[in-house]
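Q&A log
Question type: sequence-to-structure
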Amino acid sequence: MVELKTDTSIDAMYEAGQVVASALTAVRDAADVGVSLLELDEVARGVLRGAGATSPFLGYRPSFASTPFPAVICASVNDAIVHGVPDGYRLRDGDLVSIDCGAQLGGWAGDSAISFIVGTPRPADVRLIETAERALAAGIEAAVVGNRIGDIAHAIGTVCRSGGYGIMEDFGGHGIGRRMHEDPGVPNEGRPGRGMPLRHGMCLAIEPMLISGGTDTYHTAPDGWTLRTNDATRAAHVEHTVAITDSGPRILTARP
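Response status: OK
Response body:
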């Protein structure tokens, strides 16, 4: 069931989303050669704690997971697409890093992700991230009253495929509100004009996940969480929490 949020609830979700935006900005600022993924997780924990927020990631255990998630961020490096578990790995020059973070504040959730390069960028990685961001922007632009879920999916998929990139099978965006994951699902590829109609008050986490090698396949790492590309090529993941309103899409996790 899809819960339509009131304008007051959307304002409250914006507050949660801004905590996420602050955490992602702090993590990106702290990311440098030699910094460990666990240290980045501590940075995000500090932001959440300072805002009086909790993490919907910490202790999260969906049906596919053998263990609860142990951190407040997902830190996915290079060929890791999503759900990377922060550990003692220290960032190296040229690493492509995707950070996903959520916050629960006042009974509402926010969820967002960024991808960036540590140190010296590879042109191919720059293009990958830029394409992911364009796909996200296209998906948000399609998130308007009167469109359907398929219009968002089609917009994202068109940008991804035109760049020659793969799209993860079985994973995409989702509804969000009182919980991090709610109905409806938001695929990253689909047919326009299909699926649930978009209405004022729907809130969605829109999140393209691109595989640079062009394949759609992936596998789960031994930690039971991290999803890696099958061809060992690099990946990028970007995400915003977006409210659909009569005046257009409102990005609740927008960063300054």
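Response note: Residues 7-30 form the longest helix (24 residues).
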